[in-house]
Amino acid sequence: MIRLNKFLAECGVAGRRECDKLIADGCVTVNGKVAQLGCCVSETDKIAVNGRRISDVQRKYYLMLHKPKGYVTTVKDDLGRKTVMDLIDIKARLYPVGRLDYDTEGLLILTNDGQLANRLTHPRNEVDKTYICRLSGILTESERLQLERGVIIDGVKTAHARVKILKRDQHHTRCEITIHEGRNRQVKKMFQTVGKEVEFLKRVAVGNLRLGGLPRGEYRFLNAEEIDYLKNL
Ligand code: URA
């Protein structure tokens, strides 16, 4: 069940407050009866605004998934591996925004809002993506600076990045890296240029949107503020 005003807003009828006004004005019906302000509806209810049927198909979904490793970021995998869609029990046709490798975990946005997906993945929009990684070996200060200034991968220099060393022991370095490009296996390839293998990689943020304590393998709906934030990035 979902609040009627939220359902209407997600179907693109109007903002939530305006939807409340439409409901209060008696313009909205649920199964042929005039709807009451504050009521909830389910997938099977027939909802109309001024006599025009509003379909669930128009509803926009915005989710954040904590992708575990061992899942492919695709809608269907030709090799029959598990995909991120196996973790989502929503009937609408959603697709992932950007890609995390099979062995990478962390924050993945899924939506059926094609416009937003394009905006977030277009290089021109330079959305920051932040990762935590564990590297084999010790990352030196000069290597860290090299990575920040840009290194050549696949023949092209990477854009400015931020690299913070969180912890070092004899054999490993734990660091946080923020990039705004989305090239294939970019983080792993960047560290390779300074002779470091990424043993563990997790995306913890997209812009200011953070994964937080969302358990691995679970998803949650983004709230209105988070959706607005992404739309205005
Ligand atoms: N960079 C990588 O190397 N892999 C990912 O999954 C994401 C960024």
CATH superfamily of the largest domain: Pseudouridine synthase I, catalytic domain, N-terminal subdomain
CATH class of the largest domain: Alpha Beta
Tally the helices.
6
User: What kind of sheet is the major sheet?
Assistant: 9 strands, mixed
Oligomer: single chain
Q: Which percent range describes the beta-strand content? A: 25-35%
Order of helix and strand elements from N to C terminus: EHHEEEEEEEEHEHEEEEHEEEH
Bound molecules: uracil
CATH architecture of the largest domain: 2-Layer Sandwich
Might you state the CATH topology name of the largest domain?
Alpha-Beta Plaits
> From the alpha-carbon coordinates, what is the Rg to the nearest angstrom?
22 Å
From the helix content, strand content and strand pairing, which structural class follows?
alpha+beta
Number of domains: 3
- Report helical residue fraction: 10-25%
Average pLDDT confidence is: 93
State the separation between the terminal residues, measured CA to CA.
30 Å
The low-confidence runs, each spanning 5 or more residues with pLDDT under 50, are none
- How many extended strands? 17
